[in-house]
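HOLO CASE FILE
Compound: pyridoxal-5'-phosphate
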Amino acid sequence: MLDLSTVRPASAAAFERAKAVIPGGVNSPARAFGGVGGSPLFIARADGPFLFDLDGNRYLDFIGSWGPMILGHCHPAVVEATIAALKNGSSYGAPCELETRLAEMVIDAVSSVEMVRFVSSGTEATMSAIRLARGFTGRDLVIKFAGCYHGHVDSLLVSAGSSALTLGVPNSPGVPVGCTQDTIVLKFNDTAALAEVFAAKGDKIAGVILEPIVGNMGLVPPTAEFHRELRQLTQKHGTLLIYDEVMTGFRLGYGGAQELLGDKPDLSCFGKIIGGGYPVGAYGGRADIMKKIMPAGPVFQAGTLSGNPVAMAAGIATLNELKVNPPYPRLEEQSKRIGEGLLKAAASANVPVQFNRVGSMWTLFFTDTPVSDLDTAKTSDTKRFGRFFWEMMDRGVYLPCSQFEAAFTCGAMTDEHIATTIQAGAESFQAVAKG
Ligand code: PLP
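Model generated. Tokens follow.
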């Protein structure tokens, strides 16, 4: 573990102070650097592709607030729209037109979405979508996949790796078994297990929820067969197919993963990018299903700050920018270049890695096994990953602080930043190879 007290003393002191008053010193566990054996940077400010820590160090930011900052930090259009909205008041607890405008933009972007409801986080979006699926179908069972993360919803916090047909066991104290006993956990990309569960229980399954392209076990793409089977089986059994696009929505294209894959789920969940860096989540889909939500229908869901005008304005400005000046082709090209550069550097340092990537989401797994699900992701040498992470950090490149997360390239990065990243990678692999 790096001794932050000498290398980054202001961050180290801030972390000590925070730990006295905030559990673990952080307000979300992924920020605590537990996966890389150290303690976190404390951030003073951010600008474009950069984060600046309390010690005045500058880092190229490949976390981007875990996904939202696709345009980079402080994009002028987003800053301007947010300030303008703030001046009109920060929350009304009554409807405003900004909510309708952002809803129209989401519906315009994502062809499977006919109506949308805003909430304040991705967790709320998935939790509400599951409730709606159960309310709409009158069924209880839900299928999720090992390694997919859908926020800290009780019923979806189920131990990863459970085998087909076994019912879920909670993987956090405080989640009663009763909350997860209707959750079935299957292996991602396992078409046979999916078919088996539907054959046994198809008429009792309310919904299948998944990250259509997974970011939360590191980046793991689906097979075409898996998605085809998902759509066919759910349609055949009257089960709702729910895409959790909290991470992939507006990231892998303006229409999200479903546009890329050519799929049409019944419900979709969003978060991260649609709030432009502010707390927004959303769920949407077929109008006949969405009309079951209160007050149009009987399924209860509410929120004091839902549709917050400042957050809506930031979301509108972000989506507008993504539509008018789409960064996607350049993000694809730059991320591809990062992959090619890192793979070449790893090979010349003799460090076995896999580079999984879709668009601007990517993960470097420290394993010689191709990664297609949680089991294969877990073959990674996490110690080596941790060493690589700190070597990159010391060269001013801030990667996700866990092997099992996706990195995000952002629209504010230039070709020079990409070259810097590859050069830092080459030096870091050499250091890792030395042990
Ligand atoms: N779904 C996915 C795919 C996510 O990646 C996340 C968060 O990382 C969530 C849901 C939960 O979103 P939030 O952290 O905004 O509650």
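CASE NOTES: The chain has a mean pLDDT of 94. Residues 66, 121-123, 126, 149-151, 211, 215-216, 244, 246-247, 271, 281 surround pyridoxal-5'-phosphate (CB under 6 Å).
CLOSED: yes
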